[in-house]
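INPUT
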Amino acid sequence: MQKYLIFVLALATVACSANEVKPEQKIYPIAKQVVTEANPANFTGKVYTRGVWSAKAPMQANGAFVIFTPGSRTYWHEHPTGQSFIVTEGEGYVQEEGKPKVVLHAGDGVVCPPGVKHWHGGSKDKMMIQFAISEKVPGKQTAIWHEPVSDEQYNSH
Amino acid sequence: MQKYLIFVLALATVACSANEVKPEQKIYPIAKQVVTEANPANFTGKVYTRGVWSAKAPMQANGAFVIFTPGSRTYWHEHPTGQSFIVTEGEGYVQEEGKPKVVLHAGDGVVCPPGVKHWHGGSKDKMMIQFAISEKVPGKQTAIWHEPVSDEQYNSH
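OUTPUT
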């Protein structure tokens, strides 16, 4: 009986090792990336997202394109573990609460640390495409959403 | 004397709070980003980098462009906390050790988990620009470098 138990335990150990997933590189071809409209509950105007990858611990960086049509923007929001983005095309705006709006162009980078309230969007007459890196840790959302950005705030200098 | 001490302590507390840096959003305009040649000790051929931002805990994502001229590539290497990248322009290759080389085009994403040995580079006759997110945690390097990628490996199918 004891021998049988040892045999079963050994077998179980082998089965568990086989189930352990060896980490491997993953490719996310553009052909398989899906463009969806961003949730209108958190955005003003037409905004689209194209998710590329989701992070798996210990990595934190989720990668996604955000396509802002002219005049469109996020609501005011904050990122519990921070977000950074690089503008890959066009022209847009970003504003931290209590500071002036900043105009962005292709190639500009932005880092928004945890808990800093801000918004971003396309410019009045141009689109902005950004590649956004939203950092994700277990048990925390990547964004907390607040009120819309008013036209007055959007058009401010 | 006691009143004086309380006053000094109160003053010190105010001074310390003033020194506490409130997190704020940072902009990295393209005009201030510097292009440098990648360290020839870890790359074959001409490769350039354009750093955009460095992460500050709890954020982990460093952001930088890597510009591979045709035929150029990294040495074999691994990332202790992983690296992901999006191809922003051109055509290139990526290969995980023990697997076939994969051809990449603009818009394709790649996630390389911690400890997976791989290389990436431009294609034989085209450049590849990638925006790379190297995840950084305190006390760990972002990359561990190994041997060069041979011409046979580079030209493999």
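end of record. The two ends of chain B are 83 Å apart (CA to CA).
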